[in-house]
Amino acid sequence: MEKYILSLDQGTTSSRAIVFDHEGNICSMAQHEFPQIFPQPGWVEHDPHQIWGSQASVIAEAISQIGINGHDIAAIGITNQRETTIVWDADTCEPIYNAIVWQDRRTSEYCDSLREAGYADMIREKTGLILDAYFSATKVKWILDHVAGARERANAGKLRFGTVDTWLIACLTRFKVHVTDVTNAARTMLFNINTLEWDKDLLRLFDIPESMLPEVKPSSGVMGYTTTTIFAHELPIAGVAGDQQAALFGQMCVKPGSVKNTYGTGCFLLMNSGNRPIVSKNRLLSTIAWKIGDEVTYALEGSIFVGGSVVQWLRDGLKCIQSSSEVEELAESVPGTDGVYFVPALTGLGAPYWDQYARGLICGISRGTTSAHIARAALEGIAFQVYDIVKAMELDSELGISELKVDGGASRNNLLMQFQSDILSTEVLRPRVTETTALGAAYLAGLAVGYWKDIDEINAQWQIEDKFTPKANPQAVASKLAGWKDAVERCLSR
Length: 494
Known about the structure:
It is a single chain. It contains 16 helices and 23 strands. The chain is of the alpha+beta class. The chain has a domain at about 5-245: ATPase, nucleotide binding domain (Nucleotidyltransferase, domain 5, 2-Layer Sandwich). The strands form 7 sheets. Strands 17-18-16-15-21-22-23 form a 7-stranded mixed β-sheet, with helices on both faces. It has a 6-stranded mixed β-sheet with strand order 3-2-1-5-14-13, with helices on both faces. A two-stranded antiparallel ribbon has the order 4-7. Helix 9 (about 245-250) packs across helix 14 and helix 12 crosses helix 13 (about 415-425). The radius of gyration is 22 Å and the shape is globular.
């Protein structure tokens, strides 16, 4: 009887479960959105119970759609929003505070104080990361400092910390297993990517007891077995990777120099940098792409905080569209932006600027500006941010990027993909299966249990659905890029 891989894709705004077959085809999929919590400006939280509840419900829905059960599932793969931080009580298994989401900026001033104290270089050398509120370490410290009794319980070994993968594995195993993988550990700002260990200097700096931290495992390998009521059988949880690393693997960017961009809530460009971390001179991140067996693959990463979520803002904040799917039609109703630029720095600017105090800017508005011009400028603003990171990657790696593999929800937007190709003067390749984040987790899980024999077998499955080639006039592109540069300068805080 045919077996399947179940992939859990826990994202910033929704939870998904996707069932894949041996050919990498999607057999069923279920998705549930869950609420975002904004207690104060710049703060973003999730309810950990809602993360697990939405994930549990889509698991049940996805497997029931095709009439299978645990007997038919070879393994479970997990991919997740990465830096989002959850702390729970070891005795009660109850979270002591809401999950603090990667987008949250409440620890920005603390990051400034560490920078002024001269810690930025040390953190960078150990973790490959820029000192920023984006990562988990300062979020854990905030919880320990602001939740009554938390620090005392942490010092007594009674609290557990995890990124979302760790939380889901804990829930799937009834809190018997407390683990993460190297890719998620590498996003905490507590993990040394050179030694592959939790770093004692960083733990002292952030005043975080090591007893809180999960055991770090390879990205492909059995981490534990399910013991929940969702499955009548024990199923191996065999592949875990942060969402962007999973997408890099799902896109089969397995050779050094290959690049993908995921257009999700944020946008994330990753370049496979081989068996060594590249120290960026252009404010990119060095991170771990995956670990399979004893072999570690590294990546260069550029993070864009606001990608597809700018479309949500057009829908919910500006109310110029009723659903996100309408944005392409609205943007296409005008031939261009008419000089309007939209810098979507709604939660600061990520790479290569790293300005956590920058805020969104729409400029070039005239009496003739309509919601269509703003919608088109919002889409172009996503593509311009990608351009900035690609150029930084080319400088760091000393490699010209000949193609960009794309995935994520907004990669379905043909207008955006064509504009991306135009301003990069590069082919943009959209694969047949665009759920590459979930697919990457499935591949990592399947490799661990022998479902696929090796990477070569998986690589043979990757297929192009659409190819976008540059069509724009080079002078027009140069003019657009100059206008973008000016708009970014206007929105920077310094």
